Amino acid sequence: MGFYDDHILPHLIDWACGADPVMDMRRRVVPAAEGQVVEIGLGSGHNLPFYDAGKVKAVIGVDPSGAMLAKAAKRAARARFPVEMAALEGEHLPFEDGFADSVVVTYSLCTIPEPAAALAEMRRVLKPGGQLLFAEHGAAPDEAVRRWQDRLDRLFWPTISGGCHLARHPDRLIEAAGFAFTAIDRLYLPKTPRPFGFNYVGVACPR
User: Fold this and answer.
1) How confident is the model at residue 1 (pLDDT cuts 50, 70, 90)?
2) Which class does domain 3-206 fall in?
3) What does DSSP assign to residue 42?
4) Of all residues in the chain, what percent are helix, strand and coil, respectively (each to 5)?
5) d(CA 13, CA 140)
6) What pairing do the DSSP bridges indicate for beta strands 126-137 and 179-188?
7) How many CB atoms are closer than 10 A to CB 35?
8) 127-167 pLDDT, tens per residue?
């Protein structure tokens, strides 16, 4: 890890993930979480203010970046429910089968090196009848926009953004991992450049 990855990138990610349109998507999905929650890609903890303290027993947030978890600690200290944090990769979760009532993943499937493996783990740790709450950006439906996404992915975007990919299909990945959608919305975020702004937001349950 170099100076950019250690000292500049965490601040850029924190800023981008806290933009108003992105926070609106978090506000749409996170309050539905209940019981024992596992959050994949906790980052700097932007979701923590949106959990309903009356419904959540505890939140365990995992993220591979110690620098991001250090930022999350300040938000975790203000939470009205227990928050645990662990420097872990989403592809390898140390929880037993059926551990969680809810799994939350927001703006992380774009960055996880093996998203299919991570989603398989999310499905494994969910209880029967549990729910996956997600908000992710990804491949746009418009061909011209998608060409720009593919071009940026090939040229430089993952290198400067911590491994983020613009052209993944989170809906296809979620379905392929054995989930069925109970709600999903696909939309461009307002005030966001289109190659970066097509979102998939909703709820899925294990099939």
Assistant:
1) low
2) alpha beta
3) -
4) 40, 25, 35
5) 21
6) unpaired
7) 14
8) 999 999 999 999 999 999 999 999 999 999 999 999 999 99
